[in-house]
Write a structure and sequence with these properties.
Helix content: 25-40%
Number of strands: 0
Oligomer: single chain
Shape: elongated
Largest sheet: none
Structural class: mainly alpha
Distance between the termini: 60 Å
Radius of gyration: 21 Å
Order of helices and strands: HHH
Length: 88
Amino acid sequence: MTCTTLPGTGAWPSKVNWRGVDWTKRDIDISRTLRVSRERVRQVRKSIGAAQSPNHKRLSPDWSRRLEMLRQFMEQEPLAKYLPAYRL
């Protein structure tokens, strides 16, 4: 069994049609649609010179909500209550 690469690129043949991608979407949304990793979408986006993913440094709404819940919890309860006492 032999594996070949695309001529002149050194890359494995792709089963994904990258030309049909809407690059205005976030990497995570593209990766879910194409069933590839978010890292692969980022690599292809960079290699073709497309703009960075919109809001690429912002947390998803779900993580933002979880982080806010954690902040509220930490303000209400002392952390020492949940951690065992360590001796030096």
